[in-house]
Design brief:
- The protein has 254 residues and is α/β, with parallel strands linked by helices.
- An eight-stranded mixed β-sheet has the order 5-4-3-2-1-10-11-12, with helices on both faces. The chain has a four-stranded antiparallel β-sheet with strand order 6-7-9-8.
- The chain starts with a strand and ends with a helix.
- Bound molecules: magnesium ion.
C-alpha cells in the first residue's frame, strides 16, 4: 500500500482571503497546521503567478500555485505544466470577438495601475502583480451582454469565465484540468479536497474527492450543483478554517 497522501486545492478571493480585506485571518493558522501535517496545498485561483507568489511570501508558506484559472501550475518542488494560451494572443482574440458582436470590454491590459486599484481595492504593489499576466485577461463589460460575447469568443477559441469581480477571457483550460494533473501525479493512495466560493470554482470542486464551499460575503452559499458538496459555516476564511479542521481530522484518521 502506498503512503496515504492528502492534497488540498483552494481558491483565494472570497475563500482563503476575505473578499474585502484580502487577508486570510483565521485561515492562516489553519493552513499552517495542514502544511505541518505534510498535507500538500495548492492555491488555485484566477490570480497571476506574481500575485500568488507574493501572497505566499507575505504569509510565509510554501505551497503550489495553479494560476490564472488553471492556465499553468507551479508546484512547490519546482515542477511546472502549462495549459494556457499566451496573454497577447488572448487579448487580441478578446478584442476581435467584442468587435464582432458589438460589445465594448475593458481589460487589465487597457487600464493603468490606478484604474485597476479602483476596481479591485488592491494596493499599488498588488495591482501591478495582478497586471503581470501570462495567459488570461480579466475585464469588465462596458457594453453588450455576456451571452453574445461568450458566443463570439468561442469563434476565436476563447472561453468566458465569471469571477466575483471580473469576467475572464482564457483558452481551453480550467481549474479542473490542472487539479486532475496534480492528483494523477500523486499516486493511487491520495485523498483530495477543494475549497471555493463561486462559479469559477466548479471545475476544481468537481475534480476533487471532497468539495467544500464557504459562505459568500453576503452570508449565503453560492448555488453550485456539485455532488457531495460540504457547505461550510462561515464567510470566506472563517468557513475555510472549519474546512481545514475537517481535512486534518480526516488525514489523521488514515
Ligand atoms: Mg473566489
Amino acid at each position: 500500500m502506498e503512503r496515504p497522501q492528502t492534497v488540498v486545492f483552494t481558491d483565494l478571493d472570497g475563500t482563503f482571503l476575505d473578499h474585502e480585506t484580502y487577508q486570510p485571518g483565521p485561515a492562516l493558522g489553519a493552513l499552517e497546521e495542514l502544511l505541518a501535517a505534510e498535507i500538500e496545498v495548492y492555491f488555485c485561483s484566477a490570480k497571476t503567478r506574481a500575485e500568488q507568489q507574493a501572497i505566499a511570501g507575505e504569509i510565509g508558506v510554501e505551497v503550489g500555485f495553479i494560476v490564472e484559472n488553471g492556465a499553468a501550475l507551479y508546484a512547490a518542488d519546482g515542477s511546472a505544466a502549462v495549459f494556457g494560451m499566451p496573454y497577447l494572443q488572448v487579448r487580441e482574440a478578446l478584442h476581435n470577438a467584442a468587435t464582432a458582436c458589438g460589445a465594448i470590454v475593458r481589460g487589465y491590459g487597457d487600464m493603468d495601475v490606478a484604474e485597476v486599484m479602483e476596481h479591485t481595492g488592491l494596493d499599488e504593489r498588488r495591482a501591478r502583480y495582478a497586471q503581470d499576466r501570462e495567459f488570461t485577461e480579466s475585464f469588465i463589460i462596458q457594453q453588450g451582454g455576456p451571452y453574445e460575447l461568450s458566443q463570439a469568443m468561442g469563434e476565436y477559441g476563447l472561453r468566458l469565465q465569471r469571477g466575483s469581480r471580473f469576467w475572464t477571457a482564457q483558452g481551453e483550460h480550467d481549474k479542473g484540468i490542472a487539479v486532475r494533473h496534480v492528483i494523477a501525479g500523486l499516486g493511487a493512495n491520495v485523498e483530495s479536497f477543494g475549497l471555493g466560493d463561486f462559479d469559477n470554482d466548479i471545475e476544481m470542486l468537481v475534480a476533487v474527492d471532497t468539495p467544500m464551499l464557504v459562505q459568500q460575503h453576503d452570508g449565503t452559499w453560492r448555488d453550485l450543483h456539485v455532488e457531495d458538496m460540504v457547505r461550510l459555516s462561515g464567510i470566506g476564511p472563517i468557513g475555510w478554517q472549519g474546512g481545514a479542521e475537517m481535512i486534518l481530522r480526516r488525514h489523521n484518521s488514515r
